[in-house]
Write the structure tokens for this entry.
Amino acid sequence: MPDLQNFGDWPLYALSDIAHYHNGFAFKPKDWSEDGVRIIRIEQLNNPDGPYDRFTGTYPSINHIDDGDLIFSWSATLKVLIWKHGSCVLNQHLFRVDEKEGFDKQYIYYILDYHMDSLAGSSHGSTMKHIKRGELQKYRVPIPSPNKQKKIAIILQTIDRAIAHTEALIEKYHQIKAGLMHDLFTRGIGADGKLRPTREEAPELYQESAIGWIPKEWEIKCLADACEWYSGGTPNRQNSFWWDGDLPWLSPKDMKSFDLSNTQEKVTRVAALSSSRIMPVNTVFIVIRGMILAHSFPVVYSNREFCFNQDIKAIRGLGKLGNRFLAYWFVAHKDTFLKKTTESTHGTKRFDMKDIYNLHIGIPSDKEQGLFITKLDALSTKLEFENKSLVKLQKQKSGLMHDLLTGKVPVKVNPDEVDHISN
């Protein structure tokens, strides 16, 4: 029964009053198979297009999942989603959430998603969060009439579709950029401004080198000879005056964007000259040490002067090797660099710099490098625009969820909408 206390004119319900929460089947590793129905674990919620274990035996029908079913991960990773990836069976630590009469499933999805942080705050475990059924019985939320639930869900689904469309565009541009980088750094751009024909199509345009077949016009150098390399450091944190400046001090946590003009921490020039190094605008920075190298290879091209810490190398091209071309080259070869990582005695990921210095780079003419940059910058601009659009949409959704799910902004259902919303 609902609590009779009202939120405006919305009664408060415990989360257990609005839905049934069915825990998944307790599979054991010996149950897994290469055939049969796919098993949904937390891993598949995060990567539904990835690999699955399968099961050929029988299981309770309540653990079966089809498109449109609502899944609630209540242990470790707290997450809720509407499944859209075909028939499966649910593993333990995941709830199948079935709405009770008078409640809309899509609305319940948004309610759970909106209150997830609060549920996480009240959940058990300091690092491994999990939500017990008792908490679902205690946690109460305001719920409007069924027709208002449906209308609110429809409004939020509209912005979710816009978010999904933008995310798809971002993924598309990432794939286009990755393919273009591969072609540029293996074939380059000919005198006609277009990609050169492949070596199979025009072998006379290519030369064999330490990095495979490259255009005949390109020079080949190892990174030790092609670039200048600089090390940084960390000013003494006990000296508070040193950390009260306006010179950006770069550390790996700042390196989330290719083009960068600011950092979380700043120091005085005296501090930088004493314990780090000041690099001019248009310098390339890469991470050479840290656990981030277990999965990522951050590369930054600076839009202003930076100093930097000891986990980073600053790099500038020599001769005709342009710095922005060099930065894109590092990004294009991130997989090569990640394969070069080793572990220190403390388990931290790092590069043996001798291995890095011995890598070779193909260097086109200044003009050809410029054409590379023009093409890649154009794609980067599109990606930046879509990423900003995504952030804007996500903020709009957050505001809408707060306004609509708390009743702060009233939602009216006109008589002519009732039949449409109810179907």
Observations:
- The first strand starts at residue 3 and ends at 7.
- The chain is about 35% helix and 25% strand.
- The chain has a mean pLDDT of 93.
- Residues 43 and 114 are 22 Å apart (CA to CA).
